[in-house]
Amino acid sequence: MSQSPARRTVLRGAALVGAAGFGVAACSGAKKDDGLPTEPVELGAAAEVPVGGAKLYREDRLVVSQPAKGTFKCFSARCTHAGCVLTGVTKEEGDCSCHGSRFDVTNGQVIQGPATEPLPEVPVKNKGGKLIAG
Ligand code: FES
């Protein structure tokens, strides 16, 4: 009992569309701009950012860390190498899976290339328990 060639073709096509869709999402910001918000962006509860850690806001292309209780730092999450949006954070490190760059998200500095430029900082404030960036 094997599948008909037509069904296999459809399934293979669907898999390719899925992979292509992921590629677009991961590198949707491939053009070289700074990725900084042009108006204030409400990110949600400040309590969601762990002390000694960070939270990635991929949709907003921002990353916020809280190196000390009540101190928030916000950076563009657009990798300075080729413009992919960071794909994850581990404690205070932001990772770009496009080519492997890693950033310290408490100061934006590059930990590992190929990126050479730091992430641009974005002003952020805690207003009544909500983070507002930009
Ligand atoms: S775009 Fe991030 S490492 Fe290349």
UniProtKB/TrEMBL annotation:
It comes from the Bacteria. It holds the Pfam family Rieske. Signal peptide: none annotated. Residues 41-133 form the Rieske domain. Keywords: 2Fe-2S, Disulfide bond, Iron, Iron-sulfur, Metal-binding. Its cofactor is [2Fe-2S] cluster. InterPro entries: Rieske_2Fe-2S, Rieske_2Fe-2S_sf, Rieske_Fe-S_prot, Rieske_Fe-S_prot_C, TAT_signal. Iron-sulfur subunit of the cytochrome bc1 complex, an essential component of the respiratory electron transport chain required for ATP synthesis. The bc1 complex catalyzes the oxidation of menaquinol and the reduction of cytochrome c in the respiratory chain. The bc1 complex operates through a Q-cycle mechanism that couples electron transfer to generation of the proton gradient that drives ATP synthesis. This is Cytochrome bc1 complex Rieske iron-sulfur subunit.
